[in-house]
């Protein structure tokens, strides 16, 4: 009889532990910082807030390491070393730089050079977003165009990278943020986090869903309004959403806008009607490279490319507020501002 009572008491205790374990709700832990030239915010849901804060710091540390290796503005980054040695020597890079550059070249081929990691010389010439921003002379642009051939990025020799011509410069500004978001997601997963929103300057990755059976709603920036004003929402679970827009970094001269997404064929900011290109995918590195590439390709070629890729969708907006959706996103995207119209 005594044994029976002890067993019953034990059972009740176990049930209580399970019950309180279930009822304790995850709380949101958030932190933000400034890196990669932009505002970064990470929100995670966890039972242990203290540990959660530490995990986010670990993510920021990882982003900082990525920046130190891939920024053109840091003198001893892998990218700077490659650029300084252009036409001279090959440079041994860290494995993550090797990975990002390899992906960048894959997307250069997939977009027929619309996405081009060898764009560095032109980016520097325009200096958009820096104190040196200016409209270069057409001569200077034609000159710079001779140095943007991505076929001359030689990666045949393991982690050794060589630019074949002096004066060439690589730039990973169109892809590195996406890689950073994937790395943050990886760190969060490794730490048991299943629900999170990673926002690296508008490069968004959502983990899990908002509630069971309720997806996250991610706002798409209204390209005509200040940051944080949305033109629509897309419902997603475990996906990334990356937008390239003409409103992100630009200057105006004589009433004309010069933005930071350059067409490697013309040497000028891409101008084909599209002013915002959003890619939805599983991996942020893919979405980031494609957002830039599709922006440059324009509506027809860009849409054809995305329709041909498995698990990748796009939302394109042109300067007439017309919205174009790839076939797999139509039932998950809604316009919230009736200035915009979906064109079927
Ligand atoms: P994003 O905001 O992802 O579209 O990336 C734009 C950044 O990528 C620019 O600030 C440049 O550093 C770089 N970039 C500009 N044009 C291109 C291009 N056609 N291909 C690859 N990177 C580019
Ligand atoms: Mg990009």
Summarize the structure.
The chain is α+β, with helices and mostly antiparallel strands and 344 residues long.
Task: Walk me through the structure.
The protein is of the alpha+beta class and 344 residues long. It has 9 helices and 17 strands. Strand 11 (250-253) and strand 12 (256-259) form a beta hairpin. The longest helix is centred in the first third of the chain and has 22 residues, at 2-23. The radius of gyration is 23 Å and the shape is globular. 40% of the residues are buried. Bound molecules: adenosine monophosphate (AMP) and magnesium ion. Magnesium ion is lined by residues 174, 244, 288, 291-292. The site of magnesium ion (MG) has 5 residues, from helix 8.
Task: Return the average pLDDT rounded to an integer.
Answer: 94
Alpha-carbon Rg, integer? 23 Å
Q: Quick one: overall form? A: globular
Number of strands: 17
Bound molecules: adenosine monophosphate, magnesium ion
Helix and strand content put the structural class at: alpha+beta
Low-confidence stretches: none
Distance between the termini: 75 Å
Largest sheet: 9 strands, mixed
**Portion in beta strands:** 25-35%
Strand order in space, largest sheet: 1-2-6-7-10-13-14-15-17
- Name the helicity range: 25-40%
DSSP helix count?
9
Q: Could you state the order of secondary-structure elements as H and E?
A: HEEHHEHHHEEHEEEEEEEEHHEEEE
Can you give keywords for this protein?
344 residues, nine-stranded mixed β-sheet, 9 helices, 26% strand, binds adenosine monophosphate, binds magnesium ion
Could you give the topology of this structure?
Layout: H1 2-23, E1 27-35, E2 38-46, H2 49-70, H3 78-84, E3 91-92, H4 95-110, H5 120-126, H6 138-145, E4 153-157, E5 160-163, H7 176-190, E6 196-200, E7 203-207, E8 216-221, E9 230-236, E10 239-245, E11 250-253, E12 256-259, E13 274-281, H8 284-297, H9 299-307, E14 313-318, E15 322-325, E16 333-335, E17 341-342
Parallel strand pairs: 15-17
Antiparallel strand pairs: 1-2, 2-6, 3-5, 4-5, 6-7, 7-10, 8-9, 9-16, 10-13, 11-12, 13-14, 14-15
Helix pairs in contact: 2-7, 4-8, 7-8, 8-9
Magnesium ion binds near residues 244, 288 and 292.
């Amino acid at each position: 009889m005594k044994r029976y009572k002890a067993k019953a008491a034990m059972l009740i205790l176990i049930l209580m532990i399970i019950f309180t374990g279930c009822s304790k709700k995850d709380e949101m832990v958030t932190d933000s910082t400034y890196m990669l030239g932009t505002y970064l915010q990470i929100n995670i849901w966890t039972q242990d807030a203290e540990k959660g804060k530490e995990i986010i710091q670990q993510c920021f540390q990882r982003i900082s390491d990525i920046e130190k290796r891939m920024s053109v503005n840091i003198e001893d980054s892998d990218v700077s070393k490659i650029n300084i040695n252009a036409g001279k020597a090959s440079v041994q890079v860290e494995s993550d730089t090797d990975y990002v550059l390899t992906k960048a070249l894959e997307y250069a081929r997939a977009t027929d050079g619309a996405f081009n990691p060898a764009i560095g010389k032109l980016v520097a010439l325009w200096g958009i977003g820096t104190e040196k921003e200016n409209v270069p002379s057409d001569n200077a642009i034609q000159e710079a165009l001779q140095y943007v051939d991505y076929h001359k990025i030689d990666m045949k020799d393991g982690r050794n990278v060589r630019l074949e011509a002096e004066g060439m410069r690589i730039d990973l500004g169109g892809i590195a943020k996406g890689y950073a978001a994937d790395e943050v997601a990886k760190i969060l997963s490794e730490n048991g986090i299943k629900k999170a929103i990673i926002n690296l300057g508008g490069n968004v990755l959502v983990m899990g869903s908002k509630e069971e059976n309720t997806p996250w709603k991610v706002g798409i920036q209204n390209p005509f309004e200040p940051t944080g004003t949305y033109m629509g929402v897309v419902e997603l679970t475990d996906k990334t959403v990356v937008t390239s827009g003409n409103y992100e970094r630009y200057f105006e001269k004589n009433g004309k806008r010069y933005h930071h997404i350059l067409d490697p064929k013309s040497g000028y900011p891409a101008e084909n009607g599209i002013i915002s290109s959003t890619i939805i995918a599983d991996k942020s590195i893919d979405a980031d490279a494609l957002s830039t590439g599709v922006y440059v390709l324009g509506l027809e070629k860009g849409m054809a490319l995305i329709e041909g890729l498995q698990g990748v969708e796009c939302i394109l907006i042109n300067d007439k507020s017309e919205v174009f959706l790839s076939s797999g996103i139509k039932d998950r995207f809604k316009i919230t501002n009736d200035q915009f119209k979906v064109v079927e």
